Amino acid sequence: MKTLSKAIAIASLVSASALTAQVANAEVSASAAVASTYLWRGQDLGGAAVSGSLDYSNESGLYAGIWGSSGDTAGGNETDLYFGFAGEAGSIGYDIGYATYLYAGEDDIDDLAEVYLSVSADMFSATAYIPTDSDADYTYLVFGAEMGDYALTLGTNTGTDASDYTHVDVSYAYNDALAFTYSQVVAEDTDDAYDMGGVFVVSYTLPIE
C-alpha cells in the first residue's frame, strides 16, 4: 500500500486527484500513475509499476478508497483497501485509519493489515503504522517535511518480526505530474543486508478528466 490518504501519502511516489465530482457535499477523486520501479518503505521491490486509485471523502472528514498496482516481482498485483477519518484541531492536523494490503503473487507473500495514525503541523508530519495481526511484531514510523517542491522523508522499521532499518527519501516535484525520488537505506540491523546503493525513481501521474 502506497497511498493511504492525502495527509499521509509519504510511502507513495505519486499522489494526485485528477478527477473530482461534487455529490451531496462528497468528493470522488481518481488518479493513475506510472513509476520506474516499485519503491516500498525504502526498499526497491523491482520492476516498473502502474497504479491507480479511486477515493471517496466528505466534509465530516471520513474517507475511503481503493488503490491497485501492477505490484512487485515477488508479491504480484496488489490491491489496497483503506478508510479513516482526518481533520484538524487548531493548527494540528490528524488522520487515523485502517488499511489492508492484498497480494495476488506467490503463496508465501502474506496479506497485510495495519492501523495508522498521522499528525501534522505546518511543513512537518509524523505517522505510525502498526499491524493488526497479533502475530506480527513491528512498527513503521515516518517523519516528513515539505519545502515547496521538495520533500524529505525519514522512515524507520523496528520489531522482532521484521528487519530493523532506517531509510531517507528526497523527492522533487518538477510539476503536478512528474516527480523524482532518491531513496537510501542509511542504517540497518539485519543478517539479510539491504542494497545500500540507493534507489532512484521517476514517476508520472496520468491526467484523468
What number is the mean pLDDT? 82
Distance between the termini: 24 Å
Q: How many beta-strand runs? A: 15
Q: Judging by the overall fold, what is the CATH architecture?
A: Beta Barrel
The stretches of 5 or more residues where confidence is low (pLDDT under 50) are 1-24
Question: Regarding CATH, which class?
Answer: Mainly Beta
CATH superfamily: monomeric porin ompg
Radius of gyration: 16 Å
Q: Can you characterise this structure?
A:
By secondary structure, the protein is mainly β. It has one domain (19-206): Porin (Beta Barrel), CATH 2.40.160.40. It contains no helices and 15 strands. A 12-stranded antiparallel β-barrel has the order 2-5-6-7-8-9-10-11-12-13-14-15. The chain has a two-stranded antiparallel ribbon with strand order 3-4. Strand 11 and strand 12 (150-158) form a beta hairpin.
How does the SSE layout of this entry go?
Elements: E1 19-23, E2 26-35, E3 39-40, E4 43-44, E5 49-58, E6 62-72, E7 76-89, E8 92-103, E9 112-121, E10 124-131, E11 139-147, E12 150-158, E13 164-173, E14 178-189, E15 199-206
Antiparallel strand pairs: 1-2, 2-5, 2-15, 3-4, 5-6, 6-7, 7-8, 8-9, 9-10, 10-11, 11-12, 12-13, 13-14, 14-15
